[in-house]
């Protein structure tokens, strides 16, 4: 998640740090509007940064100068400045300009100033005894109302990122996150629209290209999906998941050689990509390369032992090589993970049938028909196995 100096130069980091310090103070005094994510502006006016820097220098000078008489001022102020340094963006982690969560510890410093300062004022001005508690009560009630409203935005993905877009309209990350939530609800057209808006704001946002590709696949628009996946790969060639997405779409169009190329690239980047290993095995099998397919399936299972599909596919490959007993073991492994998979019950029934284990074959054919009464071949297999059993 660390952003390189080439992507975000040190000058821009310093400018954003100065502006963010002032922004955190402002949001502390008036906590509205808040957002789950504040996008980095990409460029900041030099005069804005200079103004923020001069304000911070002025406050620092006043705090230190008054320190002998009011020691809580430099303690609280330097606490605030110092504890924000690791997260102020000089080392940029993520793409945000600032984040409310980064202030949990630093704001203790400002609250030290506030607590001791209010006590000092109350003593010096000899305020009426009940005024200070009443004022604090009013402030707490106001903050509680604001907290209640803010927590309400976190009800679900949709409410959270819709609010973020109201606060920060040019927020490509919020559009992408909202689109992801809509995608998982099956609202694909709306998801596509938000991915499109994200890419209007930031045409080089690789994640939005990739996720838009996945949504287009669900809509059956494979050629358009391949374009989006390819763009994600171009923008971020060392992201294994992007290669897997592109490979899977190419695979579905039976562009097997290209698909294999991207599966292999994904595995070069991340050898523990279980889906890439399984899909690579499927691609190898389609070209009749059974040994390579078996190796890929076995590696997928090594990475993810509870991978039912890879166990099933490995069983198919072993069966084609005549290694029926080994195939049975993997079909059974798949059923331990996914016991209601009709395909695996059928393939296991067929393999047991070939081994002459008729009682077990009949049991699995029967289970297939329980799960899917119209399953092709299951009724014929059951009838043939039952007939052979009677003949014995």
Please explain how this structure is put together.
- With 392 residues, the chain is mainly α.
- The chain is 72% helix and 1% strand.
- The chain is built from 19 helices and 2 strands.
- It has a two-stranded antiparallel sheet.
- Helix 10 packs antiparallel against helix 11.
- The longest helix has 22 residues, at 131-152.
- The protein is elongated.
- The N and C termini lie far apart (67 Å).
- 35% of the residues are buried.
- The model has no long low-confidence stretch (mean pLDDT 93).
**How many angstroms does the end-to-end distance come to?**
67 Å
* E-strand count: 2
What characterizes the major β-sheet? 2 strands, antiparallel
- What is the rounded Rg? 31 Å
User: Which shape, going by the Cα principal axes?
Assistant: elongated
Structural class: mainly alpha
Question: What is the residue-averaged pLDDT?
Answer: 93
What features would you highlight for this structure?
392 residues; mainly alpha; two-stranded antiparallel ribbon; 19 helices; 72% helix; 1% strand
Topology:
Layout: H1 10-29, E1 38-39, H2 46-65, H3 72-84, E2 96-98, H4 107-125, H5 131-152, H6 157-167, H7 172-184, H8 188-201, H9 206-218, H10 222-235, H11 240-252, H12 256-269, H13 274-286, H14 290-303, H15 308-320, H16 324-337, H17 342-354, H18 358-371, H19 378-391
Antiparallel strand pairs: 1-2
Helix pairs in contact: 1-2, 2-3, 3-4, 6-7, 7-8, 7-9, 8-9, 9-10, 9-11, 10-11, 11-12, 12-13, 13-14, 13-15, 14-15, 15-16, 16-17, 17-18, 18-19
């Amino acid at each position: 998640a660390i952003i390189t100096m080439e992507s975000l130069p040190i000058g821009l980091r310093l400018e954003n740090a100065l502006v963010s310090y002032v922004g955190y103070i402002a949001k502390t005094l008036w906590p509205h509007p808040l957002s789950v994510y504040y996008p980095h502006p990409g460029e900041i006016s030099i005069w804005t940064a200079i103004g923020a820097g001069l304000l911070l220098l002025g406050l620092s000078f006043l705090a230190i100068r008054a320190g002998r008489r009011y020691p809580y001022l430099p303690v609280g102020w330097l606490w605030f400045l110092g504890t924000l340094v690791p997260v102020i963006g000089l080392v940029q982690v993520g793409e945000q300009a600032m984040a409310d969560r980064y202030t949990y510890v630093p704001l203790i410093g400002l609250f030290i100033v506030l607590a001791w300062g209010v006590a000092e004022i109350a003593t010096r001005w000899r305020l009426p005894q009940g005024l200070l508690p009443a004022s604090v009560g009013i402030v707490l009630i106001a903050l509680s109302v604001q907290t209640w409203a803010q927590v309400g935005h976190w009800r679900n993905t949709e409410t959270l990122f819709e609010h973020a877009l109201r606060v920060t309209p040019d927020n490509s990350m919020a559009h992408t996150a909202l689109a992801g939530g809509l995608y998982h609800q099956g609202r694909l057209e709306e998801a596509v629209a938000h991915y499109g808006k994200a890419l209007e704001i930031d045409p080089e946002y690789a994640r939005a290209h990739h996720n838009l590709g996945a949504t287009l696949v669900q809509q059956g628009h494979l050629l358009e999906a391949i374009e989006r996946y390819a763009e994600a790969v171009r923008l971020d060639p060392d992201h294994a998941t992007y290669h897997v997405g592109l490979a899977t779409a190419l695979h579905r169009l039976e562009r097997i050689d290209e698909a294999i190329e991207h599966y292999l690239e994904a595995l070069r980047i991340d050898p523990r990509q279980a889906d890439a290993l399984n899909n690579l095995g499927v691609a190898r099998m389609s070209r009749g390369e059974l040994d390579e397919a078996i190796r890929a399936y076995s590696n997928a299972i090594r990475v993810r032992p509870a991978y039912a599909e890879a166990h099933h596919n490995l069983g198919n490959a072993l069966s084609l090589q005549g290694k029926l007993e080994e195939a049975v073991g993997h079909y059974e492994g798949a059923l331990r993970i996914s016991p209601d998979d009709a395909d695996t019950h059928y393939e296991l029934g067929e393999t047991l049938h070939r081994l002459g284990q008729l009682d077990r074959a009949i049991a699995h054919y029967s289970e297939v028909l329980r799960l899917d009464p119209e399953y092709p071949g299951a009724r014929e297999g059951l009838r043939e196995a039952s007939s052979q059993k009677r003949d014995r």
